[in-house]
Amino acid sequence: METRLGRKLHKLLTTKFSGAEVRIEEPSKRNVGGKFIGFVSWSGFESMDHLDRQHVIWAILQSHLTEKERLNVAIIFGETPAESSSLQSA
Fold it and tell me: What's the mean pLDDT in 19-43?
């Protein structure tokens, strides 16, 4: 079941990271404390280290989500398309 916040996260991230592949995992007992987990595979991350990617992602979340909404997000992973494909084939 897709929730309002899940749809909002997906739309926000696909809008801000043009051409990215975005996957949002809805909260469940299997993931971190029943919070959202996301993956953004975007070529624009190629020149950034992982910490810079997180800064960019969370700056967007902070400016577009309420504090209550942000508290329901565990992590959004930022990866390049090459990293994403190598993880999927492993």
Answer: 87
